[in-house]
Automatic annotation (TrEMBL):
Its main location: membrane. GO terms for molecular function: ATP binding; phosphorelay sensor kinase activity. It is found in: Cell membrane. Coiled coil: none annotated. This is histidine kinase. NCBIfam families: PRK11086.1. Residues 336-528 form the Histidine kinase domain. The lineage of its organism: Bacteria, Bacillati, Bacillota, Bacilli, Bacillales. Its EC number is 2.7.13.3. It comes from the Bacteria. GO terms for biological process: regulation of DNA-templated transcription. It comes from Metabacillus litoralis. Signal peptide: none annotated.
Length: 529
């Protein structure tokens, strides 16, 4: 089962909270240890300082030197203990006998605890040791008289409970600060996550990545050139189609990052950002290439933040429109028919001027008879007036090209149910006949046969010629856009034939022999009225 991915808000919240908690815990660990060490050190110094003060007290040195009563040591020690808030202040002589103690009953008895021997040998010593008052932190300091002779030792003790209490209080303060920091971090993480999500319009990172991929794929796949600029008129986006058109116009620099005025001075995108008005279908001449341009400002929160321009080669648009709609094929057929008719009128006019009226009459009768037979055969077999008219025009075009075009049909071809079928048929037939005429143009025998057959809702069109034929390597690529063996700016005819067949759900078969000719057989589902 696929796990649900966390949302952006949850991810940021958890991540920031985790970082804050981890940082505070590590800080807490380090600071707690430092503070505990510092407190223990402070307690050691406190005990040592108190011990040194007592050891250097004149009262203590004189009392141990038998110059004063010992009872004065007890009073002084207890007063010092009370003022410094330590557990005990014990003064002992060189035999380790106590001269003071919080419990007067312990006076005169031996001092118990670690480090006594070290201190009796003239060296200060600090240690944790267990005595009659329990375990405590003790500082033992030697006592010297005025001559420098050691006469005793002072032991000052601080209860470990007091030390641990001080450390615990320090830790408690740290824990409170850590908790407050975690709470603040959580609120900050939630606020940051919501703010970032608001900036991203509530979209998750995966959605944003998908949108970017889709946007890039769309921009690179469209045939129109697209260029975008930011509010500083700096180019931020250019797709492949735009780069191809720019290179065609001689602009070979990488445009991204450049100022639009430096790269394309007559783009007018700066003007669009000033006016905020869209300019559709404007013409732009770029180094001899005429482009059809659309300019649109980009708004964000009612503020213009950039502009986008789309453009396409005007010649390509015109050429594609003519080829897709069959206008070129119609025009060529009508032109050929008109040209042929004008030639015949010139013959008739010449005979009339020369007075060859009988010959002129016979000529007209032959023309009318031939024309009636030709037109009658087509209109009888082809019931679609658009297709029939187109084929009649192609007969004239073939005669003008010096070729013989024969059109026949085994059965009557009814008028199609939808008019778009006629246009697609004209595209298919026009390109196949044109290719056949071009193929036979260099041959001694220039003959083309177009045969129709209709049955079982299938229209079969057979186009044969006696031309030069097609090589096998060419057969595999002849329906690709732009592929041609006849030079540049060719290779659209059979590509359009293939497109029309795909629209109609038809199929095509090709057979060709070099120097003998080529045959195209087209099968098209044909709904008739």
């Amino acid at each position: 089962m696929k796990r649900n991915k966390w949302s952006l808000q949850a991810t940021i919240t958890v991540l920031v909270c985790g970082v804050v908690v981890l940082s505070l815990l590590v800080t807490d660990l380090l600071i707690t240890r430092t503070i505990a060490t510092s407190i223990e050190k402070d307690q050691e110094e406190k005990a040592t300082n108190v011990a040194r003060i007592v050891a250097h007290s004149q009262l203590v040195t004189e009392a141990l030197g038998k110059q004063k009563q010992e009872v004065s040591i007890q009073e002084f020690a207890e007063e010092t203990r009370s003022l410094t808030d330590v557990q005990f202040v014990v003064v002992m002589d060189m035999n380790g006998t106590r001269k003071s103690h919080p419990n007067p009953k312990k006076i005169g008895k031996q001092f118990i605890g670690e480090g006594k021997e070290i201190a009796l040998n003239g060296t200060e010593h600090v240690a944790v040791s267990k005595g009659t008052l329990g375990t405590s932190l003790r500082s033992l300091t030697p006592i010297f008289d005025r001559t420098g002779k050691q006469i005793g030792v002072v032991a000052v003790g601080i209860s470990l409970n007091d030390v641990e209490k001080a450390v615990s209080q320090g830790r408690k303060n740290i824990y409170v600060g850590t908790l407050l920091g975690i709470v603040a971090g959580i609120f900050g993480a939630v606020f940051m996550a919501r703010y970032i999500k608001k900036i991203l319009f509530g979209l998750e990172p995966s959605t944003i990545a998908k949108l970017l991929q889709e946007r890039d794929a769309i921009l690179q796949s469209v045939r129109e050139g697209i260029i975008a600029v930011d509010q500083d008129s700096r180019i931020t986006l250019v797709n492949k189609a735009a780069l191809r058109l720019f290179q065609k116009a001689g602009l070979t620099q990488e445009p991204r990052g450049m100022k639009m005025e430096e790269y394309l001075s007559n783009s007018k995108l700066g003007q669009i950002m000033e006016t905020g008005k869209t300019e559709p279908n404007e013409e732009l001449v770029l180094n001899g290439i005429t482009l059809v341009v659309n300019r649109v400002p980009v708004f964000l929160n009612d503020k213009i933040v950039g502009a986008v321009s789309t453009f396409r080669d005007k010649t390509e648009i015109q050429q594609l429109a003519e080829q897709l709609t069959g206008v070129r094929l119609y025009a060529e057929a009508l032109r050929a028919q008109s040209h042929e008719f004008m030639n015949k009128l010139h013959v008739i006019l010449g005979m009339s001027h020369m007075g060859y009226y009988d010959q002129m009459t016979n000529y007209i009768k032959e023309l009318v008879s031939h024309r009636n037979n030709e037109i009658g055969a087509i209109t009888r077999d082809i019931k679609d007036p658009v297709l029939a008219g187109f084929l009649i025009g192609k007969l004239s075009y073939a005669r003008e090209a010096g070729a013989k075009l024969h059109i026949s049909s085994d059965r009557q071809v009814p008028e199609p149910l939808h008019s778009h079928i006629s246009h697609e048929l004209i595209t298919i037939l026009g390109n196949l006949i044109d290719n056949a005429l071009e193929s036979v143009s260099t041959c001694s025998r220039r003959q083309i046969e177009v045969h129709f057959d209709y049955g079982d809702d299938i229209l079969t069109i057979d186009v044969k010629d006696t031309g030069v034929g097609i090589e096998k390597e060419t057969l595999n690529h002849m329906f690709e856009r732009g592929f041609s063996t006849k030079g540049e700016d060719r290779g659209l005819g059979l590509f359009l034939v293939n497109q029309s067949l795909e629209k109609l759900g038809g199929e095509i078969e090709i057979s060709s022999k070099l120097s003998q000719g080529t045959r195209f057989v087209v099968y098209i589902p044909y709904d008739c009225r």
